[in-house]
Amino acid sequence: MKRSMNLSAILWDESHLWGIWLFDALMKSGIAFDLIKAEDLKSIERYKVLFVPGGWASNKLKAINEEGKKHIKEFVKDGGVYFGICGGAGLATKEGFCLVDVRRKKDRVPSFSGPFLATLLEHPLWKDIKKPKFYLWWPSEFEIEDQDIKVLATFNRALPQAYSSDLPVLDFEENWEELESLYEIKLNPDRMKNSPLFVEAKLEKGKAFLSLIHFDTPKDERGIKVLQNLKEYLNLSELSSLKPYQKNKNKLLKDEKKFKIIDEMYRETKNLISFGERNFLFFKRYDFMYQWRRGIRGFEYVNLYFMIKRIKSELNYNNQLFSLISKKELEQLLEELKNFIKKAKDLLTKERIALQKAKLTFNYSEDETLSSIRNELFGNKKSYGGLYKNLIEKVDKIIYRILKEKLG
Predict the structure, then answer these.
(1) How far apart are CA 68 and CA 78, in angstroms?
(2) Do residue 91 and residue 158 come from a single domain?
(3) Which helix (H) or strand (E) holds 291?
(4) CA 53, CA 10: separation in Å to the nearest integer?
(5) Residues 32, 104: one domain?
(6) For residue 104, what are the domain limits?
(7) Alpha-carbon dihedral of residues 138, 72, 95, 192, nearest 10 degrees?
């Protein structure tokens, strides 16, 4: 890939599935980019744009640490562009490292997901966008405190395929008041009307784009068009070519045992998702996203499944990429995965029963045994910890290694 001052970078730390989405979207949009981690921010001046994907903003904040904050602020001050999506946008707010004078709204609709119609304000990024249909995935909401910040898009209305928590918007339009009392959170998407979703802030020589809209949603051609418009607007380098990895036509691997381990990992995680589906705890909304019942941890399982699925897809009969990973590393990961999934199925069974008996939220249960398993698997934070944290970090390292190698 050609290097130039108009090259972009994705800051990978704490992005997981959202990082994969943005990786694929930039590939489709033709934007040349590198994958970097927090320790690489000391050399950030070589890039034009820093893309920061979704994920927990609080975890990203810890990952970049004080030195990383300083490097990013200097990068933007000297003419760089920060482009944050969802959690990556939240990272740059007042509650993050204070790059932009924007706050995250406390009194908000916390669990909206899926397609919606936006109201677009004039900007080159909307070139050839005739119908402003985009996607949100459990976003925060912005409070704009600086009048010089330009709002580029606001929320207009939810589309029928959208959900609020685990409720299809199409079916509950007349019941939001009752449901908000029952769920004890705000659910009605109409509360988001005119809420700013995408802003542009000029910061000395540089600028920042903060977007709650996931322009990187798989199969969203409008989102890709916006990124292509961004490439034109900022005169970004064009993606040229990747390493010519060839799948083996004869389906032979130098180490067939590695592939068998990867395949078993995939089957284990797929079985976990199927277990949740059988018990009416998960259901598929799109090829790229599942929904889960309110009261249980859901995204963690979905994240794990799609990340391991991607590892299998990338490594399938590819000797060159397989050489990046040792058999011992895969064996240890498989052992941890099996242990996690065994405990996760036990937890999901108990949660299935608890949902029939009493109130259950992601961090509350009257069942002490259930709560104990939850803490072991996920910790007691709203984001994640426990066995899951150790497991997903190892999976993430493999994904990062593979995708970075593909870029060259």
Answers:
(1) 15
(2) yes
(3) strand 289-292
(4) 7
(5) yes
(6) 8-233
(7) -40
CA distance 163 to 404: 34
Provide the greatest CA pair distance for the chain.
Answer: 62
Half-sphere exposure of 24 (CA within 13 A, CB side): 19
Within 13 Å and on the Cβ side, how many CA atoms surround 78? 12
pTM metric for this prediction: 0.94
**Residue type at 317 in one-letter notation:** Y
Model pLDDT for residues 258-286, shown as the tens digit of each residue: 889 999 999 999 999 999 999 999 999 99
209 and 312 both lie in a single domain: no
Can you give the pLDDT at residue 383? Answer: 84
Please give the structure tokens belonging to residue 114. 């899926």
State how far the Cα of 322 lies from the Cα of 261, in Å rounded to an integer.
Answer: 12
Show the beta-strand stretches assigned E in 86-191: 102-104, 112-120, 133-137, 142-144, 150-158, 163-164, 167-168
Residue 361 DSSP class: B
Domain count, the chain: 2
Amino acid making up residue 322: F
Residues 213 and 274 in one domain: no
pLDDT in tens, 76-129: 999 999 999 999 999 999 999 999 999 999 899 999 999 999 999 999 999 999
Is residue 219 within 8 Å of 161, Cβ to Cβ? Answer: no
Q: How many residues does the chain have?
A: 408
Within 279-326, where are the H helices? Answer: 299-315, 319-322
Residue 196 to residue 289: CA distance in whole angstroms = 25
pLDDT at 1: 36
Nearest to 126 by CA among 198, 54, 195, 192: 198
CA 211/CA 199 separation, integer angstroms: 7
Tokens 């995708």 correspond to 403
Pair 191, 109: CB distance under 8 Å: yes
Q: Tokens 């640490």 — which residue?
A: 65
Quick check: 191 and 114 in contact, CB under 8 A? Answer: no
Count of other CB atoms within 10 angstroms of residue 194: 10
Say how many C-beta atoms besides its own lie within 10 A of residue 101's C-beta. Answer: 15
Task: Record the tokens describing residue 335, joined without a space.
Answer: 């052992």
d(CA 32, CA 385) in angstroms, rounded, equals: 34
